[in-house]
C-alpha cells in the first residue's frame, strides 16, 4: 500500500509519499508521479517521512527523477529510507534535509521579515481600512490595549504566538524576523523549525531605567543565543530613534557590536517621527511623551531619523531597518552606503497613515528590500503574499509586479560573525 499527494507550500511543490515502495507497486507509483509532477519543476521536494520500506524499485524511481530533473530533494527521510540511501551511497548525490521546512527554505525561501507575534493579542485594536493616525494608534491602541490585557497578557501573548506560527507555516513562510518585548516568542519560534531572527526589544526614554532595561534584554539574549537551533538566531531591536534614550542607544549598540548581535530598528515610519526628529514638534511631543512615566520627553536631534542613526554609529552595524517610508534621497544614500537592508510593510503603513515607501528608489540603488507584515495590531494577516498583493497596487507604474513578488525570497542578512 502506498499514498502520494502533492501540495504547494509557498513557492515549493511538495510530493508526499507514504507506505511501501517496492517492486509490486513501483509501476503504479511511477504513474502517479508522472501524472502529478512536471519533471522540470525547479521547486520540487519529496517528503519521505512516512515511507516504511523502499526497495531497489524505489531507488529507480528516484534515479529517473534525477535523470529528468537534475535534482532530487528529499525532506524527512524515514530511518528505512536513510539506510537504503546510505548503503547505496546515493545520499551523497541527493539533497537530503532533516525537515520539510529546511528543504522548502533551501529551495525557495519565503521571508516575513517583520512580525510582532505577541501583538496578535491586540488584533482587536487594529484600525480598519480607513486607518488611524500613527501616534494615536501607539498611545490608544497599543499602550492602552496592553494595559487592558493586564494580568491576562501572558496568556494572550502565548495564544497569539502559537496561532501566528501556525499561520506563518500554512502561508509557506520559512524565515521570520520577529520582535519580542519579554522574550515570549523565543521558545515557540525555536521549536517551530522556522529560520530567522527573534529580536528582543529595547525601549525607553528614561536614562535612569536604561541600564536595568538593557540588562533584562541582554539576559534574554545570553540565555538563548547559545541554544539556537536550525537557523533561528537571537538579536536585539532598538525600538525607534524617538523612543530610546541616547544613553540606551549607546550601550545597546556597544553590546551588539561587541557580541555580533543582529540588530533591527524601526525607522522613518511616520510623519510624526520625522517632524519630531527634524523639528522637535508634533504629535510625538504632544501625545506620545508623557503617556506614561516610563516615557519622559527627549530632545530632538534636529536631523532626519536616518541621519540620526548614521551619526550615532547605528548604521555601521548594518541593522535591518523597518519601514523607511519618510526618507529623502540623502537618507537612501546613507542606507545604501551602510550596506543595511530594509523591510517594507505596506499594509501597516497604509493603516497607520504613514504614507508610501519609495520602493523604486531603494531598488534602483540595489538596496536589499524584504517584505514584512508587521503585527496583527496594524495588519490584517501575517501572510506575506497578501502584502505583495497590496504592494503591487501601491507601487503601480513605479515597480513591476514581478520585482515585488521576488522580494519575498530575500533572506534576513546577519552580521559577519553570526553563523547561519
Ligand atoms: Zn514593528
Describe what this molecule looks like in 3D:
- Helices cover 42% and strands 18% of the residues.
- The protein has 420 residues and is of the alpha/beta class.
- The chain folds into two domains: 2-106, Transcription Regulator spoIIAA (2-Layer Sandwich), CATH 3.30.750.24; 109-409, Metal-dependent hydrolases (TIM Barrel, Alpha-Beta Barrel).
- Strand 7 (175-180), helix 7 and strand 8 form a beta-alpha-beta unit.
- The radius of gyration is 24 Å and the shape is elongated.
- It starts with a strand and ends in a 14-residue tail after the last helix.
- The structure holds zinc ion (ZN).
- Zinc ion binds next to loops.
- Residues 114, 116, 179, 266, 322, 374 line the site of zinc ion.
Chain-wise SSE layout:
Elements: E1 2-9, E2 12-21, H1 26-36, E3 44-54, H2 56-69, E4 73-75, H3 79-88, E5 95-97, H4 100-107, E6 111-115, H5 134-149, H6 153-170, E7 175-180, H7 186-192, E8 195-202, H8 210-225, E9 232-238, H9 246-259, E10 263-267, H10 271-279, H11 283-288, H12 305-311, E11 320-323, H13 329-338, E12 341-344, H14 346-351, H15 359-364, E13 369-371, H16 384-394, H17 401-406
Parallel strand pairs: 2-3, 3-4, 4-5, 6-7, 7-8, 8-9, 9-10, 10-11, 11-12, 12-13
Antiparallel strand pairs: 1-2
Helix pairs in contact: 8-9, 12-13
This protein binds zinc ion.
Amino acid at each position: 500500500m502506498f499514498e502520494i499527494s502533492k501540495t504547494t507550500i509557498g513557492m515549493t511543490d511538495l510530493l508526499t509519499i507514504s507506505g511501501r515502495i517496492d517492486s509490486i507497486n513501483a509501476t503504479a507509483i511511477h504513474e502517479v508521479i508522472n501524472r502529478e509532477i512536471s519533471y522540470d519543476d525547479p521547486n520540487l521536494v519529496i517528503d519521505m517521512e512516512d515511507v516504511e520500506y523502499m526497495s531497489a524499485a524505489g531507488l529507480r524511481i528516484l534515479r529517473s527523477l534525477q535523470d529528468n530533473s537534475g535534482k532530487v530533494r528529499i525532506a524527512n527521510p524515514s530511518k528505512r529510507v536513510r539506510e537504503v540511501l546510505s548503503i547505496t551511497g546515493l545520499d551523497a548525490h541527493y539533497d537530503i534535509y532533516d525537515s520539510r521546512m529546511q528543504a522548502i527554505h533551501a529551495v525557495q525561501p519565503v521571508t516575513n521579515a517583520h512580525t510582532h507575534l505577541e501583538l496578535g493579542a491586540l488584533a482587536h485594536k487594529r484600525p480598519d481600512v480607513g486607518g488611524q493616525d500613527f501616534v494615536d494608534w501607539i498611545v490608544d491602541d497599543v499602550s492602552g490595549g496592553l494595559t487592558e490585557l493586564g494580568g491576562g497578557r501572558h496568556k494572550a501573548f502565548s495564544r497569539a504566538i502559537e496561532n501566528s506560527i501556525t499561520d506563518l507555516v500554512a502561508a509557506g513562510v520559512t524565515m521570520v524576523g520577529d520582535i519580542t518585548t519579554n522574550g515570549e516568542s523565543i521558545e515557540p519560534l525555536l521549536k517551530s523549525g522556522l529560520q530567522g531572527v527573534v529580536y528582543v526589544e529595547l525601549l525607553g526614554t528614561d536614562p535612569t531605567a536604561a541600564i536595568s532595561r538593557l540588562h533584562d534584554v541582554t539576559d534574554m539574549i545570553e540565555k538563548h543565543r547559545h541554544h539556537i537551533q536550525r537557523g533561528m538566531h537571537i538579536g536585539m531591536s532598538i525600538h525607534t530613534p524617538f523612543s530610546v534614550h541616547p544613553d540606551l542607544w549607546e550601550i545597546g549598540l556597544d553590546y551588539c557590536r561587541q557580541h555580533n548581535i543582529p540588530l533591527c530598528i524601526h525607522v522613518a515610519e511616520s510623519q510624526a517621527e520625522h517632524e519630531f526628529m527634524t523639528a522637535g514638534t508634533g504629535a510625538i511631543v504632544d501625545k506620545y511623551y508623557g503617556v506614561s512615566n516610563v516615557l519622559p520627553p527627549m530632545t530632538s536631534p534636529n536631523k532626519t531619523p536616518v541621519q540620526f542613526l548614521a551619526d550615532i554609529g547605528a548604521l555601521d552595524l548594518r541593522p535591518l531597518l523597518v519601514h523607511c517610508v519618510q526618507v529623502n534621497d540623502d537618507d537612501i544614500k546613507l542606507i545604501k552606503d551602510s550596506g543595511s537592508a530594509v523591510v517594507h510593510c505596506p499594509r501597516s503603513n497604509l493603516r497607520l497613515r504613514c504614507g508610501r515607501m519609495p520602493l523604486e528608489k531603494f531598488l534602483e540603488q540595489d538596496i536589499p528590500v524584504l517584505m514584512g507584515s508587521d503585527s496583527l495590531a496594524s495588519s490584517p494577516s501575517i501572510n506575506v503574499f497578501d502584502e505583495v498583493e497590496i504592494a503591487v497596487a501601491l507601487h503601480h507604474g513605479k515597480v513591476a509586479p514581478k520585482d515585488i513578488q521576488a522580494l519575498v525570497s530575500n533572506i534576513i542578512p546577519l552580521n559577519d560573525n553570526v553563523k547561519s
